Amino acid sequence: MNDSIETIYQAILDGKIDETADGVKAALASGLKVQDILNKGLIAAMDVVGQRFGEGEFFIPQVLWSAKAMQAGMDLLKPHFTQDEQGARGKIVIGTAPGDIHDIGKNLVAMMLEGAGFEVVDLGVDVAPERFVDTAVKAKGHIIALSALLTTTMPGMDDVVKLLRDRGLSHIKVLIGGAPVDEAFREEIGADAYGIDAMDAVRKVRELLGRAIG
Questions:
Q1: Is residue 11 within 8 Å of 23, Cβ to Cβ?
Q2: Domains plus CATH for the chain?
Q3: How distant is the alpha carbon of residue 68 from its chain centre?
């Protein structure tokens, strides 16, 4: 592994923002390909962070610092992406279900998705079904990701699925997650995937995008 990429990789694992940024600057200055810096440095490191989180070796604070370090590197890389590279990554529109203001899980999923190399449009909390759908259409999003912490807000997920169906937008997929949500509910409302946690959400997005743009 190139020294600059090794520096980036380790800095992200350690959650060191400045060192990650310095590593990306050095890698760009040395003429390394942007895709190599992205895939072998940023994404490879965040994949390991996700694995360690899933195995209980990393906890949410560590994941958040690693995600912030990754974002610092990504911000430096973005101006160097070609239009084709930006489009090929896949775009996810994410937010909490209508009426739900609990966003810790949603924020973690958004960070993990960005760490995995996807483009994320974060609408925040208490997002109306129309805003989810309108944003996905305008931004040319591939997936709408919704989270809910309260059982009382789960019906809003069904509303998003129905609205997509009513508008003939079946090419936009729906991923749901959150404490009260399960596979049975996903099947009941006709959503395309259910993520049990942040790492599983990344896996499900990869599967959905593999079918949508692969």
A1: yes
A2: 3-81 (1.10.1240.10), 86-212 (3.40.50.280)
A3: 13
